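Recap from last week: sequence in, structure out.
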Amino acid sequence: MNQGGYLHEKFFDAFGAVIDKNQRRGLLTVDGDKIFLTKRGMSLGNEVFADFLLNQ
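Predicted structure tokens:
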């Protein structure tokens, strides 16, 4: 089994709502299996990261 694919799937299962929320806010963008802060997201990165931590 490709462990990377499994981990990727589990990550998006766990954090999909956080990713979607921050994409709608214009703070994150997804390109394939990579997630990036947008230019605006870089200014509010702590908020984005807190969303991931508070999701648990």
